[in-house]
Amino acid sequence: MSDCVFCGIVAGTTEADVVHADDALVAFLDQRPVFKGHVLLVPRTHVVTLDELPAGLRDPFLATAQRLCRAVVEGLGAQGSFVAVNNTVSQSVPHLHLHVVPRTKGDGLRGFFWPRTKYAAGERAAYAERLRVALEDDRPSDR
């Protein structure tokens, strides 16, 4: 879909800090993270909501989400994560995306209030690299 920013990231025509890419899925850092290291997971296929995700992508989508949850802990030192998918309402980009937000006790996130932060120059790339390393260390064949 030519006007979808996430399709542009998938196609490589829109810049993003990609932390994972395979034949079906791409994960990259959110441009306006709740906390640094906030990752978005999208299918390469343009679908708008979770109910449109093809059956053959359900298991890979969830398995990759699990790996991203481990990566924010192992790679960023988070204590856990917040995982969410918006369907239409509050979906800023109409392309299915799953949020994996690193969490630590006392980080200030309350309920569904999502404050946003910014990366300093060069910092986003460093966070992306840390997540790539953690994902490399957590390959599916290792599980």
TrEMBL record:
GO terms for molecular function: catalytic activity. A motif (Histidine triad motif) lies at residues 95-99. Gene3D superfamilies: HIT-like (3.30.428.10). Pfam families: HIT. The active site is at 97 (tele-amp-histidine intermediate). This is Histidine triad (HIT) family protein. It comes from Nocardioides zeae. SUPFAM superfamilies: HIT-like. One of its GO terms (biological process) is nucleotide metabolic process. Residues 5-110 form the HIT domain.
